[in-house]
Design a protein that fits this description.
Elements lengths: L2 E3 H17 L3 H13 L3 H20 L9 E9 L3 E3 L4 H13 L11 E2 L6 E2 L7 E7 L4 E8 L1 H4 L3 E5 L5 H8 L11 E8 L2 H11 L6 H7 L4 H14 L14 E9 L6 E8 L5 E6 L27 E4 L5 H5 L6 E10 L2 H12 L14 E3 L24 H10 L4 E4 L5 H10 L3 E3 L5 H5 L2 E8 L8 E15 L6 H9 L12
Parallel strand pairs: 1-3, 2-6, 9-10, 13-14, 14-15, 15-16, 16-17
Antiparallel strand pairs: 2-7, 4-5, 7-12, 8-11, 9-11, 14-19, 17-19, 18-19
Helix pairs in contact: 1-4, 2-3, 11-12, 12-13
Amino acid sequence: MSLIKESDLIASVADALQYISYYHTPDFIQAMGRAYELEKSPAARDAIAQILTNSLMCAQGHRPICQDTGIVVVFVKVGMGVRWETGRDLEAMINEGVRRAYMNPANKLRASIVGDPAFKRGNTRDNTPAVIHTEFVPGEHVEITVAAKGGGSENKSKFEMLNPSDSVADWVLEQVPHMGAGWCPPGMLGIGIGGSAEKAMLLAKKSLMEPIDILDVAARGSRNPIEELRLDIYNRVNQLGIGAQGLGGLTTVLDVKILDYPTHAASLPVAMIPNCAATRHVHFTLDGSGPARLDPPNLDLWPKVIWKADASARRVNLDTLTRAEAQAWKPGERLLLSGRMLTGRDAAHKRICALIDAGKPLPEGLSFEGRVIYYVGPVDPVGDEIVGPAGPTTANRMDRFTETMLAKTGLLAMVGKAERGEEGIEAIRRHRAPYLIAVGGAAYLVAKAIRASRIVAFPDLGMEAVYEFEIRDMPVTVAVSADGQSVHESGPQQWKGKFAGIPIAAA
């Protein structure tokens, strides 16, 4: 009978969360490397190069792959024969591990969890509590899978109660184009079929913990209807041409994972949850012999891909930028931004627009006149860093504020991640203020362009405060030009159907 010590479980959870913050799984790296080799779209290939370069930098520097270090999800299988040496319950031990991981001064992770979610939404400051799923199974071990799930991909989760005769594959193909690029493709789709509503969602999330093996399945042929369905969805989704970051390309998904469960004869519950380009999870077992040992991956697994700025990219000085210059940018054009730039996310936008609507002045020293805003919530710096990883957040969450920001503040342009919605694009077109994107999943690479940082307003918002960054050669792409043309519409249309005929087992 195994005796599991409290200290071993806490240390193992903390170590696991640190580990996955800077190490991609080897299967993901290999799949991204294959996607890079296959990719023919210049924009998508550039985005994948940034993601792979960022991944290696994080593995070497032990800093987060993404600024969104996620909500912690833990799957626990407790052997019925296990004894515990602890004065705490299981959730308390796991949450203490989360707390220690996210507050680790050597690699402090971004605290993104808010309490009182429907009302005050105050940050819990240590990223607790985790979402914990526990099973009791035969045996004398404790098996734990720890994952960190980013908000951008989690927000694109889908669920529907289909009729028993409906096609799951057709439903997925209807949903994926409406997910946009906020989930940071290329990634994985986790699908749960059956059970009840909540069981289907849990199956979808659990499936994402499995290794990427779609090429192996294709090479040997499907062995059962589920594998056949995986291959069908994989091919059909990639034929959509959505591509890396939604810019248009050959690879949108690296794998499709499916778990199923018996269900009511009248029902066909189906859930889909995507994993993004910051796929983070690890599995370990406690047997009473001490904390889990997590060996670092071999850095030779990373493909020899080093991103370099496009030689034809336009250099932009934000300190002298004019409205006419910004309005001349073309959709899909690559820019290198230098100078001073303000930041702001949901909470800051809400406060700013509330002040404007009430006829009140903005906080002293905060002015958007002639400025560019970056939608970002950075990780705290460590050591001699100016700022920690600082990749973009999903921009369409700011669409509801965009009309006010462009009409009332003098803002010239915006930088974020993924597509804008109709409301945002209409405001962009009306005020002729373009929208740019940085690559989601390249947060550490982006942070290297930041040379100075200071908080300008709302310090109580933590990572959602308004900062001023001084940047040098920050790579971005014009996603929506001043006349409202969007590369997230034109790119996928250009590459739609071009995946067809490419051997799944290539590379």
